[in-house]
Amino acid sequence: MTMPNNIEFKEKKVNYKKPEWLRKKLTPSAQIEMEGLLKDVGGLHTICQEAKCPNISECFAKKNATFLILGDICTRRCSYCNVKTGLPTEVDLSEIQKVTTSVKHLGLKFVVITSPARDDLPDGGAQQFYRVTKDILEKCPDTQVEILIPDFKASEESLKTVIDSGAVIIGHNIETVPRFYKIRKNASYERSIQVLKRLKELGGDKIKTKSALMVGLGETEEEMVQVFKDLVAVGCKFLSIGQYLAPSGDYAKVIEYVKPEQFARYKELAMDLGFEFVHSTPYARSSYLAHEYLGHESANKDLLK
After folding, report:
1. How many C-beta neighbours within 10 Å does residue 9 have?
2. Do 69 and 115 form a contact (C-beta atoms < 8 A)?
3. Nearest CA among 264, 238, 243, 267 for reference residue 254
4. Strand partners for 31
5. What are phi and psi of 155, to 5 degrees?
6. How open is the CA angle 166-230-55, to the nearest 5 degrees?
């Protein structure tokens, strides 16, 4: 594992107007319809809405959503994330049934569950991940579940709990290269790598681990490749790489709009190092087209056409 180096963050001039390849077609009607369906079952939160994901209308048009459990308030204040921060409410056990009802109502066959960081809870929210996942699998046996977890402060007990949930993929996002970890409050690169390592050691072959990286903060290709190596070394075989887009001027600035050909190069480099499947495009996000990762052989062929 590489340690953060002493290279100073140097902001360079950038044209903040989005380039052509980042002008994504929106489908507002699909977004309105999906948001209406979610309200019908009790006003569930999705990370798509809370984080202002640029893929929201595309995913909602396909009836894909990443459910946000444990409320919509995060206990950490990361300078790249749009999720609200503050003092969270108590754990709402009714959201277990609400998520399962939504899965049934929407006819979902692959579901992603995530949460804000809940450092106020002794287990970081692991038990709620377990309950939600188990309920979906019990009542929707044809549905597969992926969970995207915070670091749980690397609690072994919490990691064991989510491993036992029945999720087929457990993700934890590394987010950026070590040099820029100042944007991840109360987190560390070493801890996140350790979380992915223990997930694989404890879960063995019954789970796949997954991570995600943002680019455009000023990272170098050399730094990215080192992160790829660190992830592969701890058994992480699924990866998404996407362009960082600041939610507003109050967040960490975009330093570079990375060109599509560089995303293609990152994919090639990562695959050569041992990843099984990589989504590397400007609009890739950790939960974007999540169902493709398990069907990676056919998906990889399609992406390479």
Report:
1. 10
2. yes
3. 243
4. none
5. -65, 120
6. 60
